[in-house]
């Protein structure tokens, strides 16, 4: 085995325009072969070489290629290089050149010679040539992968197809929102007695239709005058409470709006702070990588490196803390969006939704009191408030009734000459934002196995502690269970039934399934 031992020599360093060189330059004997002619070098490094003045003609910026050769006792070793002229004499002779596009394997070959020379060890021809062989194998592997790129593309397309198929198979399971309670419903008016007395009914039966303004029943009493005064006093009390609630509702909405604006400003500031911390983290990770190299080279002590690592951990902890704050703010914004603002945003113990709900009830109660007053003025006569369908008759003719006794339950008749029925469904509150008005849903009645499709017509918040539901006309909607846990909250949806659904029974249980798309889920996950 032939080796070349170098015991002495000088070491130089490339000096750039900024005053520092990147690679150590050595005087280990080497020659540069250009167009078959060998020229001696003064010194060389992994970054380039210098030649004696007067050997090679050229000007700065010229590019060429050749082989850097080393004469070893057992033979010559050479590696291909591309170079660019960097320094020339005034009379046009080359002094120094810089390598470019140097293959990583060839660069490692030159670096191994430099490292071995600098440490004073012997330079083995076998170790040098092994780097050249590895470089050649690497080039061949790159060419082989480039030639077979289409095979990788086919594999990628097949993988994507399999993933898409799997996604479609699990879509019905992962993207389905099932109702927790649902039933067939219809708008209902409860016609009550407006005073005490003996009830006089006409010839009515359940299922019969009555016209608006038609006399339904009468209650004769001697206490009508006293009841009229009582109702007027009640009307005055209701008007005062309505005025108070209207003021409170306006203040609550303004408070929630201000709190919502403040949350958005805080979220923006915290997000910007997080971005700055991420930039600082990336910079410190770069510095840590440099420290790691410095520790290995002996230019940086371990304490400095570990202090930098501790600083990185501190930034990461701060980012985690900021993420927690962001999540808390986003949760509060979500609460405001669904109409249940946090207590911090309210001017009273009740939310704007609760105040508005109570206000609506008082307005309905006021309307009823006004109706009662009108009925008392007409000696207890009760008239049909609409073209209605008699759902139930709760009292008998000749019965002594009290004020507020339920006499009739009436439901308005739709344009299609039948009761305007719908389906009320209670859905999970946590996925409320995925449900949209106009969205088709599947439902199945308890009396049939056939699946039908309805359209979501209305969405609102629902709690058993506030279980009275009214439509836009102020009519109550029946069908939901009355024994739900009072602390449980839901998303209430009203569904327009399928046109084929003509035989559904009021209060009949229903199972409802709403299927959402992947795009809606992704928008929810990433807040797009």
UniProtKB/TrEMBL annotation:
Keyword terms: Coiled coil, Membrane, Transmembrane, Transmembrane helix
Localisation per UniProt entry: Cell envelope
Keyword Membrane recorded: yes
Source domain of life: Bacteria
Transmembrane region(s): 149-170
Keyword Ribonucleoprotein: no
Protein's name in the database: Efflux RND transporter periplasmic adaptor subunit
The organism's taxonomic lineage, starting at the top: Bacteria, Pseudomonadati, Pseudomonadota, Gammaproteobacteria, Vibrionales
């Amino acid at each position: 085995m032939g080796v070349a031992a170098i015991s002495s020599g000088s070491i130089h360093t490339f000096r750039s325009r900024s005053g520092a060189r990147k690679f150590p330059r050595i005087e280990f004997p080497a020659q540069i072969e250009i167009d078959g002619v060998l020229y001696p070098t003064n010194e060389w490094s992994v970054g380039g070489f210098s030649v004696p003045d007067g050997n090679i003609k050229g000007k700065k910026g010229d590019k060429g290629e050749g082989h850097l050769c080393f004469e070893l006792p057992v033979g010559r070793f050479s590696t291909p290089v591309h170079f660019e002229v960097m320094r020339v004499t005034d009379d046009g002779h080359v002094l120094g050149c810089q390598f470019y596009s140097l293959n990583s394997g060839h660069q490692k070959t030159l670096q191994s010679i430099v490292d071995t020379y600098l440490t004073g060890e012997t330079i083995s021809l076998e170790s040098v040539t092994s780097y050249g062989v590895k470089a050649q194998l690497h080039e061949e592997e790159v060419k082989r992968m480039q030639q077979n790129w289409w095979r990788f593309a086919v594999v990628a397309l097949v993988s994507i197809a399999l993933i898409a198929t799997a996604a479609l198979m699990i879509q019905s399971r992962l993207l389905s929102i099932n109702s927790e309670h649902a039933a067939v419903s219809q708008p209902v008016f409860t016609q009550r007695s407006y005073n005490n007395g003996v009830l006089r009914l006409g010839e009515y039966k359940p299922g019969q239709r009555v016209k608006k303004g038609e006399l339904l029943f009468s209650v004769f009493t001697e206490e009508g005058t006293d009841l009229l005064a009582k109702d007027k006093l009640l009307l005055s009390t209701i008007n005062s409470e309505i005025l108070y609630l209207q003021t409170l509702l306006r203040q609550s909405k303004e408070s929630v709006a201000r709190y919502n604006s403040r949350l958005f400003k805080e979220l923006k500031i915290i997000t910007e702070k997080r971005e700055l911390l991420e930039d600082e983290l990336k910079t410190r990770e770069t510095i840590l990588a440099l420290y790691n190299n410095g520790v290995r080279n002996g230019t940086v002590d371990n304490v400095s490196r570990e202090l930098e690592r501790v600083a990185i951990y501190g930034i990461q902890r701060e980012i985690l803390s900021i993420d927690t704050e962001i999540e808390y703010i986003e949760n509060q914004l979500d609460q405001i969006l669904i109409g249940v603002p946090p207590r911090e945003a309210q001017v009273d113990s009740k939310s704007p939704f609760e105040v508005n709900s109570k206000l609506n009830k008082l307005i309905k109660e006021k309307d009823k009191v006004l109706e009662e007053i009108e009925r008392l003025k007409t000696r207890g006569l009760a008239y049909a408030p609409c073209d209605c369908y008699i759902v139930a008759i709760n009292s008998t003719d000749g019965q002594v009734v009290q004020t507020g006794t339920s006499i009739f339950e009436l439901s308005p008749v739709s344009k299609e000459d039948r009761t305007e029925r719908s389906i009320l469904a209670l859905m999970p509150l946590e996925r409320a934002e995925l449900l949209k008005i106009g969205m088709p849903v599947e439902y199945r009645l308890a009396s049939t196995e056939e699946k039908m499709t309805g359209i979501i017509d209305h969405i609102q918040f629902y709690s058993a502690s506030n279980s009275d539901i009214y439509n836009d006309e102020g009519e109550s909607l029946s069908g939901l269970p009355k024994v739900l846990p009072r602390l449980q909250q839901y998303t209430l949806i009203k569904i327009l039934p399928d046109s084929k659904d003509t035989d559904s029974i009021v209060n009949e249980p229903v199972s409802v399934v709403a299927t959402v798309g992947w795009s809606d889920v992704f928008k929810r996950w990433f807040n797009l």
